[in-house]
Amino acid sequence: MGEEGAIVAADVKTCINCGRPLADRVEEGQSPGSTGGSSTGECDTYRVWFCVNPDCVMYNNDLYKEQLGQS
After folding, report:
1. For a designed S-S bond to 17, which of 7, 21, 29, 58 qualifies (C-beta 3.0 to 4.6 A apart)?
2. Element (H, E) at 45
């Protein structure tokens, strides 16, 4: 079970500037590679990571974006 905890810890992302842990939110966006444009109604779901340190120059900037799936 100890190895499983290490895997979870590896998923913690830190700010490239201040090194503090980032917060995340889930967003949906139009799939850029989808054919048929917006008429398909398909969109991708992303987890967006951003800095929450008010003293950092990267504060509230989106630093990482990872695709979670397609809905």
Report:
1. 58
2. strand 43-50
Q: Please state the pTM of the whole predicted model.
A: 0.64
Give the integer Cα–Cα distance in Å for 12 and 45.
Answer: 19
* CB-CB contact of 48 with 22 (8 Å): no
Distances in whole angstroms, Cα of residue 44 to Cα of each of 22, 31, 51, 69: 22, 5, 23, 6
d(C-alpha 29, C-alpha 40), whole Å: 13
The neighbouring-strand residues paired with 43 are 30
| Residue 49: Cβ-neighbour burial (10 angstroms; 0-12, 13-18, 19+) | buried
